[in-house]
Design a protein that fits this description.
The structure is a homodimer of 440-residue chains. Chain A is an alpha/beta fold and 440 residues long. Helix content of chain A is 40%, strand content 18%.
């Protein structure tokens, strides 16, 4: 539950000016990411569901109107206007899980100017964060195919919504689940977890802790073995298994994970327990996962936390939501380094004979090309056109998209840039707009 | 509003084991940051208020119990136990705005083991995030003394709680306000904002946009001048001012801010408007602010957004919440690189004759030293000992603490490490604990 006041003050001061000037004609805004972080070859669109939910519920409550009235910035007539404010516009967007590239709109809003303006802050806030995390998670999935990946990031996430939405975004991009119980409840994501070091430390000895835990969770026995001495703890696990206690896995959270996993695997195998799996956690990210995979380190699953949930190597995107058209006329910003392509746009994707992405073409909305159009209608007149997409469908779409990425773009390092062409129609529109604005 | 399920599943599986084993004796946990990010000489404690609020309201609702019951992890008896679960423990903490150093506990929880355990995830989540942002904001304040600093970060914050709490954390660390309207309402933080590029672009020409805006906001006229051509826009601003329209400031959001500010300042001064201020935004952080200050760039205020709200150069802290004592016995984790000092602890700070920080001493709680003790009682038996501290008081405390930092630690670069001594009493306790655990 958020509030219509979760926005920048300038949205509301602009709204008051539009109200005063009676500027309520149709505006078109598009949300896109300009330059990508240098650590990203591609991004995965996510967060649309929460964006649409926000638009459907947007309204100013009494407390909010009262605060604005006494803030000193607004006239009484404008506050009255806000009381009936609703979003009644149209939204076209890339379905969640779609891979996209620089300057491609992932969402387009067509609505009376004040409505299309007000929603900027929260729409960026919702879509950029989930896109950030889905993209980082997709890299982990590419780096560790076939491994179990679990989001462990809640504690280091930036507040509760970040923890919740990071679980959703990483799941849709290929993770198997999360430790976040609330995300499990809200989004029907599988949840995972067993014990922390404190559980071991609260017992007078480690073997007792293992034994007691196994009694209370007979079908979910994953034992944390690095509190004191990992190899000695592995021996205690084996002793327990020999008593007939069913142990699903051990978890290692510190030390040299590669050496420890090798040594523990050897011990477990020699003792006749090849079915006990090894799960690792602690400071992991896609680069570390790839290292383990390259060396065939015997680790079956990974808990990826902080670096996923903060997208630590690229903690933000150069996301923008810009006016492209107002009252039927294309608009364009030409600030240095922040120039935009004017008008309502569509993105067409082309595939090669193997189904791999070949190139994208950015063009005007009316210019029908023979590629696959990526922006789809999702909201008309403030109402969704379809119920929320199940996460399972988004997850499948994302996996298929990752499968269709050219090999060079799958690399964790920047190896190639993907061609996004500007169509002749769009280039013409930009030139016309510049002439009209007296810019060239 | 959050939920008791905003936690890691392992907290609940451990709780079930504690319930089953009847392990309900008193546990002591401490929250601290191990190694600091290499970009930080010091950190500013923040988030305690939200932590205490969470503890006071912690309870499992019907929907939550139902979800847990059908999750397959828990027994009916344990779910019943959760229905009456409340936090009834004690909390000692550093007041918000206190500067602290590696391995110093900023919060200590003393409570029955299950209670002290469950709260780990959300306590870290709340305190580490605000501490992260307050620390980044304090660096901005140190870099730009006397300048107006405004948080512009909401859109790139990681979700809504991050945006809200970043406004609070940056304000308490020295910012003058935020663009975030909801933060203004919830925390009584001054709010700032006027117009975006889209406002200019929606008008057929820039001068009309400036004039219309000034009419609707006569006491808050800050004009954004970089949409098309910053210097030409400055001329339009001057023409308007010559008509007698009162203009508070201009904002520049792109381009070479230093050159543009110099040129615009010259124009405004020559036209006889030295009182019109220059405000800058766009990709700012403490390093850029310091550069402007070093060069005496004529910019009066700064909107600091993305890099503040994501703490982009250090987007997480190595924060931990560890069991230090259970059932009267000190406990200690010795995992490689994650070793902790056992037992209940206190931090004493010593000052030199000028009132500057000299050193801190980490010792056992009972070892009374003559420095200033930093951990103070804030909650007993699950109830706060005092009403929430006003942000103004926290802000004053933080400013005083920043003033007392030795010069070398105020530097944006790492220049010196601050001495945190381990007292003989604590060293003895650690050795005894190791002997008891058979570790040495």
């Amino acid at each position: 539950m958020t509030s219509a006041l979760l926005t920048d003050l300038y949205q509301l001061t602009m709204l008051q000016a539009y109200w005063y000037e009676r500027m309520e004609e149709t505006a078109v805004f598009e949300l896109f990411v300009r330059q990508f972080p240098k650590e990203r070859n591609f991004l995965v669109a996510a967060g649309l569901e929460q964006g649409l939910e926000y638009l459907e519920n947007l309204a100013f409550g009494d407390e909010e109107c009262q605060f604005l009235a006494q803030s000193g910035f607004f006239e009484p007539g404008f506050i009255e206007y806000l009381k009936n404010f609703r979003f009644t516009g149209d939204v076209d967007a890339m379905p969640e899980g779609t891979i996209f590239f620089p300057n491609e709109p992932i969402l387009r809003v067509t609505a009376p100017l004040p409505q299309a303006q007000l929603i900027e802050t929260r729409l960026i806030n919702l879509l950029q964060f989930q896109t950030l995390i889905a993209s980082k998670a997709a890299r982990c999935a590419l780096a560790a195919p076939g491994k179990m990946l679990v989001d462990f990031g809640l504690r280091r996430a930036h507040g509760f919504e970040a923890g919740l939405l990071a679980a959703r975004a990483s799941y849709l991009a290929g993770f198997n689940g999360t430790s976040n119980v609330l995300a499990g409840m809200r989004f029907e994501i599988p949840i995972f977890g067993t014990m922390a070091h404190s559980y071991i430390m609260a017992h007078d000895d480690e073997a007792t802790a293992f034994r007691e835990f196994a009694k209370t969770q007979p079908s979910n026995v994953v034992l944390l073995i690095d509190t004191y001495d990992t190899l000695k703890a592995a021996d205690k696990v084996i002793a327990l298994a020999k008593e007939g206690i069913k142990i699903k896995a051990v978890r290692i959270d510190s030390g040299n994970l590669e050496e420890l996993a090798l040594a523990v695997r050897r011990k477990l195998d020699q003792a006749g327990f090849p079915e006990i799996k090894i799960f690792a956690s602690g400071d992991l990210d896609e680069y570390v996962l790839q290292h383990f995979l390259d060396r065939s380190t015997p680790i079956d699953g990974f808990g990826v936390g902080t670096k996923l949930t903060t997208s630590s190597d690229a903690p933000y995107l150069n996301s923008a939501y810009k006016l492209q058209e107002y009252a039927g006329l294309p608009r364009r910003k030409v600030s240095p380094g922040k120039q935009t392509w004017p008008g309502r746009k569509q993105v067409y994707r082309y595939h090669d004979q193997n189904g791999l992405f070949l190139k994208d073409v950015l063009t005007t909305q009316g210019d029908l090309l023979d590629g696959t159009p990526l922006l789809q209608p999702v909201m008309r007149g403030g109402k969704r056109l379809a119920p929320p997409e199940p996460l399972s469908i988004i997850r499948t779409r994302c996996a298929a998209q990752l499968n269709s990425l050219p090999e060079a773009l799958k690399s964790l390092n920047i190896t190639a840039s993907y061609p996004v062409e500007i169509s002749p129609a769009l280039a013409r529109l930009a030139a016309e707009t510049d002439r009209r604005l007296g810019l060239k």
